[in-house]
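assembly run, all chains below
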Amino acid sequence: MRSVHISLGSRSYDILIGSAVAVDEVLPTTGLGRGVAVIVTNTTIAALHLPRIRSALGHAFARVEVVELPDGEEFKTWGSLNQILTALLGWGCDRNTVLFALGGGVVGDVTGFAAATYMRGIPFVQLPTTLLAQVDSSVGGKTAINHPLGKNMIGAFYQPRVVVCDLACLDTLPLRELQAGIGEVIKYGPVADMSFFQWLEGSMEALLAKDREVLADVVQRCCEIKAAVVSSDERESGMRAILNFGHTFGHAIEAGMGYGVWLHGEAVAAGMVMAAELSRRGGLVDEVFVRRLTALIQRAGLPTKGPILDASDNAARYLELMRIDKKSEGGEIRFVLIDSPGKAVLRPVPDALVREVIDVCCE
Amino acid sequence: MRSVHISLGSRSYDILIGSAVAVDEVLPTTGLGRGVAVIVTNTTIAALHLPRIRSALGHAFARVEVVELPDGEEFKTWGSLNQILTALLGWGCDRNTVLFALGGGVVGDVTGFAAATYMRGIPFVQLPTTLLAQVDSSVGGKTAINHPLGKNMIGAFYQPRVVVCDLACLDTLPLRELQAGIGEVIKYGPVADMSFFQWLEGSMEALLAKDREVLADVVQRCCEIKAAVVSSDERESGMRAILNFGHTFGHAIEAGMGYGVWLHGEAVAAGMVMAAELSRRGGLVDEVFVRRLTALIQRAGLPTKGPILDASDNAARYLELMRIDKKSEGGEIRFVLIDSPGKAVLRPVPDALVREVIDVCCE
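ok done. output:
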């Protein structure tokens, strides 16, 4: 089994990467495994993976309970959070109860926030079942729910005790979700490691075919990059924001289309092309880089153009949606731009330039 | 102006104690004071203190907004939290927005939790207007809302940037609330400092008469004790729990009677007598100590007996309510007991002994 360490003092933890991992066997190293385990999952994942995980946790815990949420980004709400908290209270769960998030980003974010806030904090473990969650959302301690007025607006920085990336879970992952995960994978190249990007260019077909070794390499390298960034800036006061490359445009796409219409990774993919084009027009990177990024995104089967959100003034609608982004300050939107391939910067951009890019990059 | 420092590394802050404090003048030392200030208060406090605070903050911030919650423990809910979060999103507040909690424990707890979770954390300032909030709830970073199944069950440890205890706010505090605050003041003696307890025995009349110097001494000493405890155990993994002396019984009283029927400090007062009696029957303290504590609580005008929560089996009802306490572990209730006057310990007690105490101490 491979492992990547996230170094955060008393909140440090490991990401374990393997195939058909026996969760009960990795728990002893974390000090967890007594009392009550509560698995939070969704109805889709429950049908595929719950029996195996439940049985494994039954070896380590005196009692195993399950909360099944409905499946979908539209359920990343206070209602789902409250469903978990109410169940925990109903079962008399105390501060030693361990939450297990079995699912993708939505399950991980909601479960992590429940762990952060139940009795002011209980331990939790991430068991990500999608590529996107394995390379991004389950690592780094960002937890949240959506608010009708904005995505991920209510949440906490709260670290898991361990993350177990089981590549066997990806066997059942639908192609569209695999592709969405590849969106977040591609992101790590332009912001941190162009040799990884180059390797990806030579491995895209194997990745789309779910080659187990290529998947292992991808998950490990993405987690290594994320670990380095998160360890240096846990609460996103600076450098960590570079991991949001493509996300400012992407969040506008998700919100503007209605959550769940575009998958997060699809919106980020189109958002990366827009942010790259913005970097080019800002004089940072050349057209060769933008074309190279666009080509890889296209080979992954991901969108390279943003949708039209408002036929009368599309750019105004994007700008309106982006101003509520968590990276904005005093109404000024700060974009993650590519300074040079492999290096990102965070900075505001004049509205006029952003409008140009939106006009060119949407259809 | 007096000050007490809470030492928590990068989360350290000061508690400032004075009369008619100009809030805008103390802000510069905290690095706060630009962009948007949002004052969260309740309708009662707004009528008394809002104009002065709003005007002061107008000198330091470009924009000052206000959220008015309804007054009362029964509004320490998700509904009030969401009222704050929705207002912040509606005003386009970003991560530099500063929340000011102007009020007692309910306002402080809800506002602190809103600050902890809005965009995963924004700065906040406590402006406690009750004695209870000045000596206890506004210091130490415990934030929470109630859940229908339990008090303070959803929350976070999240520290304010500064706490300003303005003794002038206590001029308008109703006697019953002053007395409830004295309940929490008395607590600090048995758990940490019997010389303070002795001083209180000689100062109770002046305290009830709101003597400004006595109030200043009381707030300072209680904050000093709390600062020492919180600095050594921020997240209540051990020693910090001693500050919950009287609270296990007290929470059962509040929940059993319906939140708001007994004030928190009243429930804690009766709860302290019960916990002291439990300590005596457990062989820790003598009857002289229990009588001395009971006498001081009585002189403060506070209840020394718990209410009957269930005429058919009162002890069973208390036990049922106490098992859901955050200090319980595996269904075993851990009580804060007085080991010897001035020193507390946390330990489980056999149900039979707890039943005896409930039978003797309720009427």
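The mean pLDDT of chain A is 95.

The CA atoms of residues 4 and 224 of chain A lie 6 Å apart.

not gonna interpret more than that til we talk
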